[in-house]
Amino acid sequence: MARPAARPAKPSRPARGPDPLGTATRRAALRLLDAVLRRGEPLESALALATRALPGGPDRGLAHAIAAETLRRLPDLDALIDSATRQRLPDDAKARFVLRVALVQALALGTPPHAAIATVLPLVDGGPKRLVHGVFGTLMRGGATLSEVPSLLPAVAERWRAYWGEEAVAAAARAIAAPPPLDLTLRDPGTTADWVERLGGTSLAPGHVRLPAGAGAVSELPGYAEGAWWVQDLAASIPARLLATGAAPGARALDLCAAPGGKTLQLAAAGYAVTAVDVSESRAARLRDNRDRIGLAYDIALADVLDWSPGAPAQAVLVDAPCSATGIFRRHPDVLHRAGDATIAEMAELQTRILDRAADWVAPGGTLVYATCSLEPAEGEAQLTRFLAARGDFALAPPTQAELPQGVAPTSEGWVRTLPGTVEAVGGCDGFFVARLTRL
Ligand SMILES: C[S@@+](CC[C@H](N)C(=O)[O-])C[C@H]1O[C@@H](n2cnc3c(N)ncnc32)[C@H](O)[C@@H]1O
Predict the structure, then answer these.
(1) CA dihedral 298, 302, 307, 310 (to 10 degrees)
(2) Kindly report the CA angle at 380 between 375 and 382, in degrees rounded to 5?
(3) To test ligand 1's pocket by mutation, which of 234, 237, 277, 278 has the most ligand atoms within 8 angstroms of CB?
(4) Which residues are annotated as a binding site for S-adenosyl-L-methionine?
(5) In the structure, which protein residues have their CB atom closer than 6 angstroms to any atom of ligand 1?
(6) Average pLDDT of each block of 10 consecutive residues along the chain (440 residues)?
(7) Which family does it belong to (predicted)?
(8) Do 421 and 303 fall within a single domain?
(9) Which secondary-structure segment (H or E) carries 264?
(10) 386-411 burial by CB neighbour count: b if 16+ within 10 A, else e?
(11) Among 141, 175, 193, which residue terminates a domain?
């Protein structure tokens, strides 16, 4: 029998030497972009693995900043790249990724152009180095700039234009450009004026303090160590505000989908005996950490709401449902790249299952609040319309103006919808849908 011919040895890839100074950070930024854009992972979840080779916090922070700013500016960066290449680079070409990272540094992050390109060129080793160098050089010599207000991704702009109109799309683009303020929720709303003064902030509601962007490290701010407040966007504070009204001390509240626990803390501070349920172990750990730091009491159940059930119905039930999270795009620009029609439909289906199950745990005369940090009506308005049509034993309990922050009003339907233009003149807020219902 003839022996099979020996296979020619594969040329082995030369081992990669150590990265030149600064390149390891850009390599990590590239890995983050790859995780978000090619694999659909959340930027924050990809961070630990992508940056594990970096020596410390500042390098990790820079890798994160490069990736986040690239995601904010992606349509404009790509338009520049396309304007300088004869043949369009495929969306997933390494050269395009590397050019995005070089350009965002030079045009948005203040890195000198020679450093921006020198630190990324080793990333295309064995690839089209000359092309990358050439495109970058052409754009720099031609005085390329990025517009002050970034362009929204076309698919997102089209979706939101259809739902919310042109002005909301323009406000969303402006919101991407401006770093959002820091919102704090106070453990004791009665101390609002004191904390506004101590922290040098402003307030749009009892128990709320707003500090300008860049207020410094959160853990260094007065009141952090003593647990006087926690970080929570103004819009995110609305769902629990609607349950705090008329809370009977010691009444039972279920906070389903609770971690990291901003709303759990509000409910506990309002006097409820809260059970906080979440399926994620790592996120539930933050429920514990926050409880320890703030010094409020609540029970934590690590469980899937679709399997779990409470021993008895509760006076208050909060469903802050998992969602596409497109309403938090200012702090998490990756959501806009990851949440397409399929994700939105998948999340809406999960929300339906959670909401329908949770509704049965509301005691007669009790209150149910349903909320999502999404700008997609399928996860808000349509979800509630469906629920109300199916459940004659629930009725909307519209919020009063006094229950809502300044600048936020209930809609004519009787729920709350915050949009990119909401309170824009004083720093804006996340996009949320919130509805309160009473069980008859
Ligand atoms: C929007 S976040 C909650 C934010 C939280 N309410 C707060 O204010 O800090 C949604 C949460 O739902 C949790 N989750 C998703 N599916 C779940 C399920 N089937 N059962 C329980 N929790 C779930 C996720 O782990 C996530 O922490």
Answers:
(1) -20
(2) 120
(3) 278
(4) 257-263, 278, 304, 320
(5) 257-263, 277-280, 283, 304-306, 320, 322, 373
(6) 45 59 93 96 95 89 96 98 95 96 97 96 90 97 96 97 98 94 98 98 98 93 97 98 93 97 98 98 96 97 97 97 98 96 97 98 98 98 98 98 97 98 98 98
(7) Belongs to the class I-like SAM-binding methyltransferase superfamily. RsmB/NOP family.
(8) yes
(9) helix 262-269
(10) ebeeebeebeebbbeeebbbebbebe
(11) 141
CA of 21 to the centre of ligand 1 (A): 40
**Which residue's alpha carbon is nearest to atom 13 within ligand 1?**
257
DSSP character string of 99-148: HHHHHHHHHHS---HHHHHHTTGGGGTTS-HHHHHHHHHHHHHTT----S
What stretches of 246-291 adopt beta strand conformation (E)? 252-256, 273-278
Catalytic residue among 103, 373, 404, 408: 373
Task: Give the chain's domain count.
Answer: 2
Does one domain contain both 136 and 238?
A: no
Q: What is the pLDDT of residue 215?
A: 87
Q: What is the DSSP letter of 377?
A: G
The predicted pLDDT at position 18 comes to 67
Tell which of 94, 112, 141 closes a domain: 141
Ligand 1 nearest-atom number relative to CA 372: 1
Task: Give me the numbers of helices (H) and strands (E) for the chain, helices first please.
Answer: 15, 11
Which amino acid belongs to residue 186? L
Residue 202, domain member (yes or no): no
373 is catalytic: yes
Query: How far does the chain reach from its first CA to its final CA, in angstroms?
Result: 85
The pLDDT of residue 12 is: 52
Q: How far apart are CA 5 and CA 172, in angstroms?
A: 63
User: Same domain, yes or no, for 135 and 260?
Assistant: no
Residue 304 Cα: closest atom of ligand 1: 20
Structural domain boundaries enclosing 327: 234-439
Query: pLDDT value at position 15?
Result: 57
| In a domain? residue 6 | no
Residue 259 C-alpha to ligand 1 middle, in angstroms?
6
- List CB contacts of 434: < 8 A, sequence separation 6 or more: 238, 239, 242, 369, 370, 371, 415, 416, 417
